[in-house]
Amino acid sequence: MTATDFPAETTMATASSRSRTDRRMALRGLAFVAPAALLLIAIYILPMIVLAAFSVTDYQLGALSIRFVGLQNFTAAMDDDVFMRAFANTVLYAVIVIPFGVFLALGVALLVYNRKRSRAFWEVAYFLPVTATLVAMATVWQFLLHPSIGPVNAAIKWFGFEPVAFLSNPVLLIPTMAMIGIWQVLGFNMVLFLAGLTAIPKDLYEAARLDGARNPIDRFFTVTWPILGPTTMFVVVTTSISAFKVFETVAVLTKGRFGSETLLFNLYLEGFEYSNTGYAAALTLIFLAIVLILSIWQTVHMDRKVHY
Amino acid sequence: MTPQSVELRGIGKSFGTENVLKGIDLSVRPGEFLSLVGMSGCGKSTLLRMIAGLEAPDRGTVSIGGSDVTDMDPSERNLAMVFQSYALYPHMNVRQNIATPLRMRRLPLSARLPLIGGLFAPSQTLREIDAAVEQAAETLHIPHLLDRKPAQLSGGQRQRVALARALVRSPAAFLMDEPLSNLDAKLRAHMREELASLHRRLGATFIYVTHDQIEAMTMSDRIALMSEGRIEQLGTPDELYRSPATLTVARFIGTPSINLLPVEIDAQGKVAAFGQDLGLQAAAAHAGPATLGIRSEDLRPAAEGLAVRVLRAETHGADRFVSCQLLADETVRITLRQAAGETLETGADGLTHLAFAPERAHLFGADGARRELSVRERVAA
């Protein structure tokens, strides 16, 4: 078919000139992307590679020799009682902090949202712990919960009960720290929920009322809860990550005594107290894997339900 | 449910110092299509929200079907409302959206809870709800959309879903708050027709808020034209067009807008414009400045009459609108309506004269109220 030959040739000619423009555009695009990409590589990707490299060695901070040990650090972690205890403690901590930190914050946000004049006061009051340094606040909590001089135990005693050793009874340690964690995260989550609530169109509530949603429970389940879905997902993911990162409270309140280590605290001990850099790097990778898997699972699992 | 009447008595409302409704009395007859029209800020939406129960009046009462509902929650008034934004639940598909009013009314609270609700729902009721949803969808020609989410629908389709949700439970009355204003012009014209035919088929009471006088004119049995918190005039579209009770009504109704001519009523009640006797007689008691309203179709080119300069002409298919400027007062614009084929003879400088049908002119006093007007033999000045 000669008729199609001519057009084919001309397309080829334009194609080559187009590919030259394409190449120039691609170069230009790369130039624009380069600063961000290089920064990303320098501060995230490279450290991760270095970390992964350390995790398969027996390197000790300041040591002159370094030896490849394969996956020995990882298998050692599985046999390490302290690490497994830290893992269990962290899971328990997260299991307490995530639901309470999310649902209490939602409850508080709903209450605060309907205040007219006092709303600003409540927002600030609940947000203050977020702005405070947790290390300092943990010290304050240490005082509050002190068995002999703390006001909390004074109140318990006043009611005629035995004082509670919040910070030395191994059973109570993690729940106590979880409570402080909830206190810390509540204000931040509340602000996120408030932002979500503000974005709900008023029309929807009005439509729901005309549709016969006469009580607040109906309006909550018909409008508020479903529309807050994306906010809730975000709050759950961020709360989970911050729960798995628990460190300051342990460092200040117990320093890991009475079997109260958490993942990050154990990591800190291994890496910076005992200078087991190789082992600490392996623990860090395990920690990152846990947080990553959890976040991805939550996002994939919840995303299907909350986006429309 | 048979269509119900809606009665408003002495409704008043202020927001802060602003008096947005100043004693509204209005009876909507059962099965009537009544439009509340007016400029934005005239209080029409507030009034509708009061009927719905979303806003409480400071004074006055709202009755539906003869019983006082002023203090009743919106959920108990058995009204359906279509919002300008459609207010569809974004997380529900169309079927669930339409079913919501029925689920709220027919299912116990335990059956409406998420996740576990299904365990408590009586299956007979669920089947009835499904059937009602299918039928509502059928009425609005949207059965094929039932499984989609609102985000996957076009504006017109969302509109239909909002209507289906409103009519699925045969409410006492339908309230509509500018439901067509988010649609493009062509679809709006189409939905006007559909709404009017839906009203005929259902025979239900419709209360329709709009700022668009064309919507009100084309669909309504009666129109309540509101301005500054008052009802200026209540009547059929024809009444509002042919005998506007006030200058505001005359200005608002009709496309193109009515032509307004500043006139003077002398001590004998003769009406003159810029010293030219118009051959019209008003009551002598109304002597003073006034406004004469003339519809564009009541004007015609003539050898003598109002001297005007032609500015431009627009052809709208069958009609032709000619904009002119009054020679005596260049700030006064006059629009003349002609059939498309007609022409307007002008002098070299674009000057011509226009005469009007005197028996169809409207006279308004300085206070905006309509004045009696009769045709008198013209006396040469």
Automatic annotation (TrEMBL), chain A:
InterPro entries membership: ABC_transporter_permease, MetI-like, MetI-like_sf
Entry's transmembrane regions = 30-54, 91-112, 124-144, 172-200, 220-244, 278-297
GO biological process terms, alphabetically, are:
transmembrane transport
GO cellular-component term (any): plasma membrane
Residues in domain ABC transmembrane type-1?
87-298
Offer one Pfam family short name for this entry: BPD_transp_1
Q: Primary place of residence?
A: membrane
Its topology with respect to the membrane? Multi-pass membrane protein
Keywords, sorted A to Z: Cell membrane, Membrane, Transmembrane, Transmembrane helix, Transport
The keyword Transmembrane helix appears for this protein: yes
Subcellular localization(s) per the UniProt record:
Cell membrane
Family of the protein in this entry: Belongs to the binding-protein-dependent transport system permease family.
Q: What name has this protein been given in UniProt?
A: ABC transporter permease
Q: Say which species the protein is native to.
A: Pseudorhizobium pelagicum
From TrEMBL, chain B:
**Gene Ontology MF terms:** ABC-type transporter activity; ATP binding; ATP hydrolysis activity
The signal sequence is none
Q: What is its main location?
A: membrane
Which intervals hold domain ABC transporter?
6-253
| SUPFAM superfamilies according to UniProt | MOP-like, P-loop containing nucleoside triphosphate hydrolases
- GO CC terms of this entry: ATP-binding cassette (ABC) transporter complex, substrate-binding subunit-containing
Compartments, as annotated in UniProt = Cell inner membrane
Tell whether Lipid metabolism is among the UniProt keywords: no
On the tree of life, the source organism's domain of life is Bacteria
Q: Which Pfam families match?
A: ABC_tran
Determine if Membrane is one of this entry's keywords: yes
Bilayer disposition of the protein: Peripheral membrane protein
| Entry keyword set | ATP-binding, Cell inner membrane, Cell membrane, Membrane, Nucleotide-binding, Transport
Name its GO BP terms in alphabetical order. Answer: carbohydrate transport
Q: Which family does it belong to?
A: Belongs to the ABC transporter superfamily.
Q: What is this protein called?
A: Glycerol-3-phosphate ABC transporter ATP-binding protein
Its source organism is Pseudorhizobium pelagicum
